[in-house]
From TrEMBL:
Residues forming coiled coils: none
PANTHER family documented for this protein: GLYCINE--TRNA LIGASE, GLYCYL-TRNA SYNTHETASE/DNA POLYMERASE SUBUNIT GAMMA-2
InterPro entries: Anticodon-bd, Anticodon-bd_dom_sf, Gly-tRNA_synthase/POLG2
Name by which UniProt lists this protein: Anticodon-binding domain-containing protein
Gene3D superfamilies per the UniProt record, alphabetical: Anticodon-binding domain
Protein species of origin: Citrus sinensis
Transmembrane segments: none
Source superkingdom: Eukaryota
Source organism phylogeny: Eukaryota, Viridiplantae, Streptophyta, Embryophyta, Tracheophyta
Cross-referenced Pfam families: HGTP_anticodon (PF03129)
UniProt xrefs under SUPFAM superfamilies: Class II aaRS ABD-related
Anticodon-binding domain: residues covered: 9-61
């Protein structure tokens, strides 16, 4: 499994997401602050905000099939990111 960790603000997040989507990366993680990250799911383009401490366990639970993205999405602050690709 590959993850894209976006920590540079040199390029727009939407352009970075588009590049990783083309490569087939299932999740992108953008560092929001020293305590939280945004996780974006490639197929739905939906995003959730989680604490930095929870990020790895959320990704692991989804990729191991312990939970579905839809269930995770409904459990955390979220939004759709379709405009982020523009």
């Amino acid at each position: 499994m590959f993850l894209d960790v976006n920590i540079s603000r040199c390029t727009s997040i939407g352009k970075r997401y588009a590049r990783t989507d083309e490569l087939g990366v299932p999740f992108a993680i953008t560092v929001d602050s020293t305590s939280s990250v945004t996780i974006r799911e490639r197929d739905s383009k939906d995003q959730i905000r989680v604490s930095l401490d929870e990020a790895a366990s959320v990704i692991k639970a989804v990729t191991d099939g312990q939970t579905k993205w839809e269930d995770v999405w409904s459990s955390y602050p979220h939004h759709s990111s379709e405009s982020a690709d523009d």
